[in-house]
Specification:
Spore Coat Polysaccharide Biosynthesis Protein SpsA, Chain A; 391 residues; alpha/beta; 55% helix
Length: 391
């Protein structure tokens, strides 16, 4: 039994290593990444004629955001973009506080153009986006969230990429995780985001990234397609809808914004497992894109590897850990307990001390656990979301 469990555990971890090694070699180390970053730098230096800028609709879904909406609208007003070419559409998902009243007062105070749509019942963030797009009149849609802080020039920087790069219909930016309190969850998130941001940029260099970030993204309205209301993540559904049309959804690291992250481990687990389950739903619902000619390198390289990373790798991780514990327990029960203690120590050190590779490995292991839980929850269809507890 010891030998069998050891072989199974080793095989699982080798398979995980093979998936990530293939992704690292084919995607992260692809020479197109350097050229893509150089092109972005050249695009950043360009200027856009103010009188030729397209009309942009800033679209945001909200639920019980009375403490945040005033500052968010002020931030939108402060963006470096002509106000006469800016439309703001807020879709309130049946808030039970004074979110709508606060937003209406701020609309009037700032002189914002647009409208506030109030749902008569909870329909969920995906359907809120569908409703908002249907009411929009802009050539472009800029998506954002109440708890997202967007740099003032982000709109213009994203627009430069959108109008310059071929076949690009959507541009997301690079989020910087922030927190009002110092916590190990922030350290975990920073380690993971550094790696994930590199993934997004490398995938964009080759074709498109998945799922990208819609904390702030600028998308051609003509590329929008109605997204499923009850399943899938908003960013995953939007990015895959764009790729399905034979277009590209890319990440531009010079399009900067800030995102408040969970301040405690339970909150991070709730947030991450929910995102994981919805991202997995989006991926599994679009498996027909695999090796599809119209999707180019995304369908033949990026999407297959990402699908393995978010579905197969977490299962292999679970089986490997269980088999390793069983194998060690056959030698000595104390050895099994020692292994658990060692893993706990790595978890503790990795979450509190920035130790380069150790921090990354620890962060990836934690996120594999989140993906695993998300995979088990991906069968449930959930349409609504909870109020942002970090407000």
């Amino acid at each position: 039994m010891f030998l069998l469990m050891s072989i199974i555990a080793s095989s699982c971890f080798v398979a995980i290593a093979a998936i990530f090694a293939t992704y690292y070699t084919v995607v992260l180390r692809n020479p197109m990444k350097t050229r893509y970053l150089r092109d972005l730098d050249d695009i950043r230096k360009r200027t856009l004629a103010i009188d030729r800028l397209p009309k942009v609709t800033v679209l945001m879904a909200m639920y019980n955001e009375e403490t945040m909406i005033r500052e968010k609208l002020a931030e939108i007003f402060a963006m470096e973009y002509p106000h006469e070419k800016l439309e703001v559409i807020l879709v309130d998902d049946h808030s039970t506080d004074s979110t709508v009243a606060t937003a209406e007062k701020q609309f009037a105070k700032l002189g914002l153009r647009g409208e506030i749509i109030r749902n008569n019942e909870r329909v969920g963030i995906n359907e809120c986006f569908n409703i908002g797009v249907a009411h929009s009149t802009g050539d472009l849609i800029a998506t954002t969230g109440p708890d997202i802080i967007v740099e003032h020039r982000a709109m213009l920087e994203a627009l430069k990429v959108l109008v310059t790069m071929k076949h690009v219909a959507g541009v997301s930016g690079k989020p910087t995780p922030t927190s009002h309190q110092s916590s190990n969850t922030l350290q975990i998130e920073k380690s993971y985001r550094d790696f994930y941001d590199s993934m997004c940029v490398a995938e964009s260099a080759i074709h498109s990234t998945f799922p990208g970030y819609t904390g702030f993204a600028v998308i051609a309205r003509s590329a929008f397609a109605r997204i499923p209301a009850e399943y899938g993540s908003t960013d995953g559904n939007l990015s895959l809808a764009i790729v399905r049309r034979g277009l590209r959804f890319v990440c531009a690291p010079n399009v900067a914004f800030y995102e408040e992250v969970a301040g405690s481990l339970p909150e991070q687990m709730r947030q991450k497992t929910r995102r994981a389950s919805r991202t997995i739903q989006s991926a599994l619902a679009n498996t027909d894109l695999l090796f599809r000619k119209e999707c180019g390198a995304f369908g033949s390289v990026i999407f297959p590897l990402r699908l393995l990373m978010i579905t197969l790798a977490p299962l292999l991780f679970l089986v490997g850990v269980i088999c390793a514990l069983i194998a060690v327990s056959y030698v000595s029960m104390w050895g099994s307990l020692l292994l658990i203690v060692i893993l706990a120590c790595v978890r503790y050190v990795g979450s509190r001390v920035k130790l380069g590779s150790l921090g990354l490995v620890h962060s990836l292991a934690v996120h594999e656990c989140y993906l695993l839980i998300g995979l088990f929850l991906s069968g449930a269809r959930r349409g609504t979301w909870k109020h942002n507890l970090r407000s």
